[in-house]
């Protein structure tokens, strides 16, 4: 009994000492972290919102910030603290610090200094499921992707997007909505997502997609291109969250696998069809531009061109991008909520196009109210609220606080920054 009593005591001492050491270590780490972020005020929670687990939790004070907290809270956490830069310190499993920035100049400095503030690639890894691409890469790899992708963003391509959009909208009015005095759309994204994907089908691949379900499934496929495009986008979260080996487990997962495999098959076919492609003046869709840039020997010299998997990775990133569809949906919702603004928009369109003609790309500067509506929707409901960046070097930011006083903050550690520009101006 005495022996077991002693060992119990020894055991308790060992456990107690280990816990005490752990607690001391934790306090030292925390103090070092707080000092390294200049004791910047902000959120303090147990779990970090940059981990998958922390992101899955709802908002629980002191425990987790909750999903999409930047989107929901907008500028309020900055306004509360009177400064457009705040910290987020989490404690489990060890103290970790993030800096959230809403100061426009500081955001510009971070975005433009790619070398000083690289992306924390682990947070982007999930976007590589379709292949390496410009968004999920940094450094020399990013430069290779950028060479090719940048070609697709030309004035000529912008015109192509405009023309494709007008054609798709006219077809919607002349087919699906023809003869209807009123159209009820339950969920605006159901409509805007289709618009976005049809535009990318036309401007991205030179493939016209009809609003009507009249397409025939081509031999060797199980879905039409339109269905593969629409459903892959819809079920993207499954593809991103479920590992490949588990994709056969449920009917839903198997369906999602079929959809993305089908889209991948279509894209591979399109790339094969256009191999050795010479760019023609009147034929510059996004895929043609990417392939032409990749085939341009002058561009590469000693570097390795993109392979098919990397080309597909970039195309996926460009087409499965729902930013525009969601922004458009919010713009429509805001116009419905503010009929007076809707009327002002309508009156400007009527002034610019008095004869009811179809607007052209050159009309854009005159349609300033349309741009303003879209910008305001983006400001109020941004589809991207955080752009994660990191820095491995000491950094100094000079920020003006709410009282107009300049404050210089020195961060002396590897810090992760999340820039968010959304400032709330919602009318109550
Ligand atoms: C409302 C619409 C959009 C918003 C709010 C938006 C927002 C963003 C943001 C915040 C970034 C990250 C910038 C950075 O890391 O420095 C980004 C990157 C990018 N976006 Fe968009 N985007 C939109 C539409 C589009 C569209 C329609 C395309 C093309 C079809 C596109 C293509 C890209 C590409 C290629 C990059 C990567 C740039 C790079 O790393 O060099 N975006 N976008």
TrEMBL record:
Pathway: Secondary metabolite biosynthesis; terpenoid biosynthesis. Its cofactor is heme. GO terms for molecular function: heme binding; iron ion binding; monooxygenase activity; oxidoreductase activity, acting on paired donors, with incorporation or reduction of molecular oxygen. The keyword Transferase does not apply. It is found in: Membrane. It holds the Pfam family p450. Keywords: Heme, Iron, Membrane, Metal-binding, Monooxygenase, Oxidoreductase, Transmembrane, Transmembrane helix. One of its GO terms (cellular component) is membrane. InterPro entries: Cyt_P450 (IPR001128), Cyt_P450_sf (IPR036396), Cytochrome_P450_monoxygenase (IPR050121). Belongs to the cytochrome P450 family. PANTHER family: CYTOCHROME P450, CYTOCHROME P450 12A4, MITOCHONDRIAL-RELATED. This is Cytochrome P450. It comes from Rhizopogon vesiculosus.
């Amino acid at each position: 009994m005495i022996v077991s009593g002693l060992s119990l005591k020894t055991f308790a001492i060992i456990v107690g000492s280990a816990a005490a050491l752990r607690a001391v270590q934790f306090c030292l780490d925390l103090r070092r972290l707080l000092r390294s972020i200049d004791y910047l005020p902000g959120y303090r929670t147990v779990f970090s919102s940059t981990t998958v687990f922390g992101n899955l939790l709802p908002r629980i004070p002191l425990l987790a910030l909750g999903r999409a907290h930047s989107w929901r809270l907008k500028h309020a956490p900055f306004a509360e603290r009177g400064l457009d830069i705040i910290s987020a310190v989490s404690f489990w499993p060890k103290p970790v610090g993030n800096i959230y920035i809403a100061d426009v100049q500081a955001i510009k400095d971070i975005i433009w200094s790619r070398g000083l503030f690289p992306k924390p690639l682990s947070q982007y890894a999930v976007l590589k499921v379709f292949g390496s691409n410009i968004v999920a890469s940094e450094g020399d790899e990013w430069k290779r992707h950028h060479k090719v992708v940048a070609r697709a963003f030309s004035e000529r391509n912008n015109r192509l997007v405009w023309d494709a959009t007008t054609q798709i909208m006219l077809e919607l009015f002349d087919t699906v909505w023809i003869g209807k005095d009123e159209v009820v759309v339950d969920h605006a994204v159901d409509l805007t997502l289709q618009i976005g994907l049809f535009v990318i089908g036309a401007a991205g691949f030179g493939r016209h997609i009809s609003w009507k379900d009249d397409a025939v499934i081509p031999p060797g496929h199980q879905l039409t291109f339109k269905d593969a495009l629409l459903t892959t986008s819809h079920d993207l979260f499954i593809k991103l969250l479920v590992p490949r080996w588990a994709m056969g487990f449920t009917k839903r997962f198997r369906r999602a696998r079929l959809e993305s495999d089908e889209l991948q098959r279509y894209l591979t076919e399109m790339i094969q069809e256009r191999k050795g492609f010479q760019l023609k003046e009147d034929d510059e869709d996004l895929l043609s531009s990417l392939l032409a840039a990749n085939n341009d020997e002058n561009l590469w010299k000693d570097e390795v061109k993109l392979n098919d998997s990397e080309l597909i990775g970039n195309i996926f990133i460009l087409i499965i991008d729902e930013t525009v569809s969601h922004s458009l949906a919010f713009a429509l919702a805001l116009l419905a909520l503010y009929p007076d603004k809707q009327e002002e928009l309508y009156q400007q369109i009527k002034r610019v196009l008095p004869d009811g003609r179809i607007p052209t790309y050159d009309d854009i500067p005159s349609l300033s109210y349309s741009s303003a509506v879209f910008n305001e929707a983006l400001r109020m409901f941004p589809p991207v609220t955080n752009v994660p960046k990191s820095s491995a070097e000491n950094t100094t930011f000079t920020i003006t606080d709410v009282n107009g006083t300049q404050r210089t903050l020195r961060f002396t550690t590897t810090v992760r920054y999340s820039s968010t520009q959304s400032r709330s101006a919602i009318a109550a």
